[in-house]
């Protein structure tokens, strides 16, 4: 399956991806409505773009009481807003902290119908859209980063 893969060493934290995403989905430049966010840690000098990894066996699917969240045949996570009750279970269940709430509804990367604008516009090519297995090694670095971000280390 094609996924967005992050080359952490190439990300400069410019947040172009956030602006491109928000504009592509809502015609507004606003990081708060972007489906990708860049977490910045100046202490260790690292910027990390966070978005849905379109995991097979995604934990949010089984945690949605109304089945508003599903996975399409191509693996893309989809939210049926007519079924969503804004409970927030999907946010809690995502192991990547990749889901945001905007106007009481979850917003999740939808890969822009297989042409991710964030990838196309990333000036440093830190985002790559390619066939990739489930995240494994990047997950280790990501989890370490997120523990620091959430003050767990």
Question: What would you say this structure looks like, in words?
Answer:
β4 and β5 form a beta hairpin. 25% of the residues lie in helices and 21% in strands. The chain has a domain at 2-53 and 98-149. The protein has a two-stranded antiparallel ribbon. It has a two-stranded antiparallel ribbon with strand order 2-3. It has a two-stranded antiparallel sheet with strand order 4-5. With 153 residues, the protein is α+β, with helices and mostly antiparallel strands. The N and C termini lie far apart (33 Å). It is globular and about 40 Å long.
Brief summary:
With 153 residues, this protein is α+β, with helices and mostly antiparallel strands.
Keywords:
two-stranded antiparallel sheet
Specify the helix fraction band. 25-40%
Please indicate the percent range of residues in DSSP E strands (runs of 2 or more): 15-25%
For the biggest β-sheet, the strand order reads 1-8
Enumerate the spans where pLDDT stays under 50 for 5 or more consecutive residues: none
Q: State the shape.
A: globular
Give the strand tally.
Answer: 8
The biggest sheet, with number of strands, parallel, antiparallel or mixed sense and barrel status, is: 2 strands, antiparallel
Structure classification: alpha+beta
Number of helices: 5
How would you describe the oligomerization state of the chains in this entry?
single chain
Q: In angstroms, what is the radius of gyration?
A: 15 Å
Mean pLDDT across the residues is 88
Which sequence of SSEs, written as H and E, runs from N to C? EHEEHEEHEEHEH
The end-to-end distance, rounded to whole angstroms, is 33 Å
């Amino acid at each position: 399956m094609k996924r967005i893969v992050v080359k952490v060493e190439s990300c400069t934290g410019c947040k172009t991806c956030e602006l491109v995403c928000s504009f592509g989905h809502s015609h507004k430049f606003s990081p708060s409505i972007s489906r990708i966010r860049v977490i910045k840690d100046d202490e260790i000098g690292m910027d990390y773009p966070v978005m849905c990894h379109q995991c097979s066996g995604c934990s949010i699917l089984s945690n949605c009481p109304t089945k508003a969240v599903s996975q399409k045949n191509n693996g893309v996570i989809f939210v049926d807003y007519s079924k969503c009750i804004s409970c927030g279970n999907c946010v809690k269940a995502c192991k990547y902290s990749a889901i945001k709430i905007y106007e009481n509804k979850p917003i999740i990367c939808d890969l822009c119908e297989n042409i991710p604008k964030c990838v196309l516009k990333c000036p440093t090519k830190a985002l790559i859209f390619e066939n990739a297995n489930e995240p494994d090694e990047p997950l280790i670095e990501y989890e370490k980063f997120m523990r620091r971000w959430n003050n767990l280390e």
